[in-house]
Write a structure and sequence with these properties.
Blueprint lengths: L4 H20 L8 H4 L3 H11 L4 H15 L25 H11 L9 H10 L2 H10 L6 H17 L6 H22 L9 H22 L7 H12 L6 H37 L1
């Protein structure tokens, strides 16, 4: 996934939530049917992700199509491409130029790449094996319990305002191997290869879910993270009298519900595994 794409999706969702709140409050919202065609980029993203196409290609295509429908030129009208018909317009910034500028302005979001060599070296010298071995020695450890603990850990990091690159820095090198170690211990399997492929894929999905739940909702409990600051800025701009701490308080019940639903999901994962082993024996 593009660096920052997940954050942009969260931002868009929160803006839409504020827009819906305005509608429910009785504010007048006009709808121009031709303008709806500019939302075709959303349809492209949904279809592309549904067919499991490359996320980078889907997102960039959606952005270009949306810009063209909105009447923006493909390239800026100055410089090397000055005067080219159809793809440039005098005085307007091109879509490709916007994408390049946005990437340059948000280049700090790709700093996580610096951590990848260190993670790779740690894995080369047995990080995953040691993580899995640690969990195997814990008799009470199950995949579901481990993921509930990790979700709570991510929420705690959100409360403290600490940003972690969860998937590349924690889930893949640590949490996922620990989950496999717990699954091996329960199944009394000697190697990961002994586990069914379908079960491994379910564990992968559950690991991603735990990370996403904790990160998405946990950041709303900190008044210094961009998610809650965005909601605050938009609502202030719409004329609502709000403060950051009131938004954090309203987010607490949602976080609690996410923990409960996540715990149920991970408990069902453990239950399916126990039933599979019972049927096998």
């Amino acid at each position: 996934m593009l660096p920052g794409v997940a954050h942009d999706v969260i931002v868009d969702a929160k803006i839409n939530l504020v827009f819906l709140t305005e509608c429910l409050a009785g504010a007048e919202v006009t709808m121009n049917v031709p303008e709806l065609f500019k939302l075709s980029g959303i349809a492209i993203v949904i279809v592309g992700l549904a067919f499991r196409l490359r996320t980078t290609l889907v997102v960039v295509t959606a952005g270009i199509v949306t810009g063209l429908i909105a009447g923006l030129p493909l390239l800026s009208g100055d410089g090397v491409f000055q005067g080219l018909p159809l793809i440039t317009k005098p005085g307007q910034e091109g879509i490709i130029n916007m994408l390049g500028r946005a990437f340059a302005d948000n280049r700090l979001m790709i700093l996580f790449i610096i951590t990848l060599p260190a993670i790779g070296l740690a894995e080369r010298y047995g990080l995953q094996e040691q993580a899995a071995s640690l969990v195997r020695r814990m008799r009470a450890a199950t995949v579901g319990r481990l993921l509930v603990v990790y979700q709570l850990f991510r929420i705690l990091m959100g409360i403290l305002g600490i940003r972690l690159n969860g998937h590349p820095a924690f889930v893949r090198p640590l949490v996922f191997p620990m989950s496999l170690g717990a699954a091996e211990a329960i199944a009394r399997a000697k190697t990961v290869e002994s586990l069914p492929v379908a079960e491994i894929e379910q564990i992968k999905a559950a690991n991603s879910a735990s990370e996403n739940y904790g990160n998405f909702y946990g950041q709303n409990l900190s008044p210094v993270l961009p998610g809650i600051l965005l909601v605050y800025g938009v609502m202030k701009g719409l004329g609502y009298t709000v403060n950051l701490w009131s938004l954090v308080l309203f987010a607490i019940p949602i976080v609690v519900i996410s923990v409960i639903l996540g715990a149920i999901q991970f408990w069902l994962l453990d239950l399916r595994e126990r039933r599979r082993l019972a049927a096998k024996h």
